[in-house]
Amino acid sequence: MSEEPIYDDPDTQLARRVAALERLAETQDILDRTEALAVRQRQQVEQSRTHLLEKISRTQDEHGAVLAQHGEMLTEILSLLRGTNGPTR
Questions:
Q1: What pLDDT is recorded for position 40?
Q2: How far from 1 is each of 4, 7, 8, 61, CA to CA, in Å?
Q3: Per-residue pLDDT at 20
Q4: What span, in angstroms and rounded, lies between the C-alpha atoms of 73 and 79?
């Protein structure tokens, strides 16, 4: 059975260290790209949220205006009905 030497020759040690540094650089690049993607996605979510809130606000304003108009119409109808029927006592 042949035993592995405890210490590799300097060329092998250097090659291993270079390979480790290359893997580290690749990993850092992946992390950087992932972070950039996450930032873009957060921006898109925030933009979508802002647009949705604006749309909800416009819809609420429109519905409020329609409800106010209907309320005025109902008030007018009630006034007309009261005027037509005369006082009820």
A1: 98
A2: 10, 18, 18, 85
A3: 96
A4: 10
**pLDDT surpasses 90 at 22:** yes
For residue range 59-68, what is the model confidence (pLDDT) as tens digits?
Answer: 999 999 999 9
Alpha helices by DSSP H, listed for the chain, are: 10-85
| CA distance from start to end of the chain | 117
- Indicate the helix (H) or strand (E) that contains 3: none
Distance CA(23)–CA(29), nearest Å, equals 10
Residue 86, sorted as left (phi over 0), alpha (psi -120 to 50) or beta, turns out to be left
Q: Would the pTM count as exceeding 0.85?
A: no
Amino acid at 56: I
**Count of residues in the chain:** 89
pLDDT at 2 over 90: no
Helix, coil or strand: residue 6:
coil
